[in-house]
Amino acid sequence: MTAAAAAVAALPMTFSMTGTAVAEAPVKGAELTAHPLYDKGALPTVKCKERQVRARDLASARAYVTGIVGCLDATWEQHLTAAGLPFRKVRVKHYGHIPKKYCGMEIGSDESMAYYCDRTDTIAFQIGKDWAANPYDLWLADMTAGMYGYHVQNVIGIRAATDKEPYRNKTHWREVMRRESLQTACLATAWLKSVWPLDRRTRRDWDDLLALVQGDRRGEPRYFGTTGTIKRWMRRGYAAADPGACNTWAAPSSQVS
């Protein structure tokens, strides 16, 4: 889940250490738990055509991602404006190597990466040979839709609301990070269902996508959720095609582990 690291790196870690420390605590801010994003219903049906990606062809992989972003813009513009919420198209920037201090974040050393910069509404893509090696699964589409989920959260104020949360300790802060990341995973598959079936795609493609999911590894900081938890939120989004199914902020801590 390398792409999700963008949100974790960009959010300031400020904690209130007064009182008794808690292990984990639900989010209580209504700007998160009762956001109007969850009230509009299912995403609109938008026709999306995938561009052909040739194996090990970085240029075609970049063109594919840019095309998916166009589909995402069309879907989310309709949905957010109909709900009376703000909308801005996302910017896309392709890099051979993302600058080390891009958007004030610590950039990883993976061959392929994607980061969202909330300062400029930009998704930075570094597509290497590993992401371009197998263009026949939905990984690139789902990853792109997940990055777009961070953009949606930023534009409609969810991201700003997370800054206002009174984090009690690092454990609580990481739980909020998981809620944010799990919501992007759910929003991505809600969008995927809204444009399904894509040309030539079958249920097997969906099953293959789920098989690729990897969550936080044992012993590492828990920023994104376990593999099982991520899959559950992805299934929720796909089943409903509705952002209302993706309200991780109102879920109990046990559902965002």
Short description:
The protein has helices at 5-10, 30-33, 58-82, 129-132, 139-155, 158-164, 170-194, 203-211, 227-240; strands spanning 91-94, 113-117, 122-126. It is mainly alpha-helical. It has a three-stranded mixed sheet with strand order 1-3-2.
Tags for this model:
globular; 257 residues; 9 helices; mainly alpha; disordered N terminus; 3 strands
What's the SSE blueprint?
Blueprint: H1 5-10, H2 30-33, H3 58-82, E1 91-94, E2 113-117, E3 122-126, H4 129-132, H5 139-155, H6 158-164, H7 170-194, H8 203-211, H9 227-240
Parallel strand pairs: 1-3
Antiparallel strand pairs: 2-3
Structure description:
By secondary structure, the chain is mainly α. Helices cover 43% and strands 5% of the residues. It has helices at residues 5-10, 30-33, 58-82, 129-132, 139-155, 158-164, 170-194, 203-211, 227-240, and strands at residues 91-94, 113-117, 122-126. Strands 1-3-2 form a 3-stranded mixed sheet. β2 (113-117) and β3 form a beta hairpin. α3 (58-82) runs parallel beside α5, α5 (139-155) packs across α7 and α7 (170-194) packs parallel to α9 (227-240). It is globular, with a radius of gyration of 17 Å. The chain starts with a helix and ends in a 17-residue tail after the last helix. Residues 1-23 have low confidence and may be disordered.
